[in-house]
Each structure stands twice: as structure tokens, then as C-alpha cells.
Known about the structure:
Blueprint: E1 2-7, H1 10-22, E2 27-30, H2 32-38, E3 46-50, H3 55-64
Antiparallel strand pairs: 1-3, 2-3
Amino acid sequence: MRELVRSNDPVRLSWLEALLRDQGIEAIILDTHTAILEGSAGAILRRLMVLDEDYDAACRLFRDTGEAISEFD
């Protein structure tokens, strides 16, 4: 799996997940439970992940819709 976005904004992550789903790209959001347990400080970022084979299509979709992709290694 590859990471597309890290964010502590659950609304944005939900929107991006729906955008991907509409294009037939399966996505998963990791670290949701940890972020909830951490409280409202926003220190734990959630990660939006896609399968390796869907990464390029997801990146094109995000670029076409003006969404930023996180650059983490």
C-alpha cells in the first residue's frame, strides 16, 4: 500500500475516500483509532492509503481535481 495524504481533517479524508471510491479505487484510512484516542490536539495524522497498483491513477485523479498529495517517505 502507498500513502496519498496525511491529515487530521476527517471531513477532507472522507471526501477524498469518496472521490477515490467513485473512480473504482479502493482506499483505506489508517490511524483513525489512534487519532481519536489522542484527543483533539491533532498530533496524530490519519493516513489515506491505496493499493500500489492504484497509486498512479489516484495521483492523476487528485491532480485533476486540485487535491494535494502528501510527499512522505
